[in-house]
Design goal:
The protein is mostly helical and about 120 residues long. The chain has one domain. About 45% of the residues lie in helices and about 5% in strands. The chain contains 3 helices and 2 strands, in the order αβαβα. A two-stranded parallel ribbon has the order 1-2. The protein is elongated and about 60 Å long.
């Protein structure tokens, strides 16, 4: 096992509240275009799509033809990442729900070691 890449979003969306909203009673909201919250969600969605694309490229280079891929994180992102991988990874993708982004490197190594141990038993 070796670390290939460190993929980061590096996206700051700032204050997600719509603090500039008009408080006066009227038939319309006083807004034209999208709210800050909508814009932030759009940016986060685009960033997630870019990260999944980057991830599939890194995984494709690292796992080659016989390597396994271990995914962790939210169920939604696991599913998105799995679906983005090519069919050549069918049967070689494992999902461990205990993995999360705030884990220390030693915790990740232990978790991956446990999965590898299970694979070698099979």
């Amino acid at each position: 096992m070796h670390e290939v890449a460190d993929l980061r979003a590096d996206t700051f969306v700032g204050d997600l509240s719509d603090a500039g909203m008009s408080k006066q009673d009227s038939l319309n909201s006083g807004f034209r275009g999208e709210t800050r919250t909508d814009a932030a969600h759009r940016v986060l969605q685009l960033t997630s799509e870019r990260l999944v694309k980057d991830l599939t490229e890194v995984v494709g280079q690292g796992a080659i033809e016989h390597g396994f891929v271990l995914l962790g994180g939210t169920p939604e992102m696991d599913t998105t990442a799995r679906e983005a991988l090519s069919e050549s990874f069918d049967g070689r993708v494992l999902i461990d729900r205990s993995l999360h982004v705030k884990m220390r490197e030693a915790e990740v190594r232990n978790a991956v070691g446990d999965v590898v141990s299970e694979l070698t038993k099979s």
